[in-house]
Design goal:
Elements (H helix, E strand, L loop, with lengths): L1 H11 L3 H17 L27 H5 L4
Helix pairs in contact: 1-2
């Protein structure tokens, strides 16, 4: 694995240790300290609105209905 970093560092013109530090930081952020709340997420576009929501589109009443 170290050899792969060494080759990549030469082609990028950067020290091997710098690439390894970046890889470790990425691993730490994604695996060791995953985002646990929605505050850390950035909004994303889901595309254009296909149709406006109506009162019939609300599922909360169905979810709270104990008879379902």
């Amino acid at each position: 694995m170290y050899a792969e970093f060494k080759v990549a560092s030469k082609s990028a013109g950067r020290p091997t240790s710098e690439l390894i530090r970046e890889a470790m930081e990425l691993y730490r952020r994604e695996r060791l300290r995953p985002v646990g709340d929605l505050a850390g997420f950035r909004p994303r576009s889901a595309g254009r609105v296909l149709r406006p929501l109506t009162a019939d589109d609300d599922l909360l009443d169905e979810m709270l209905d104990s008879d379902s």
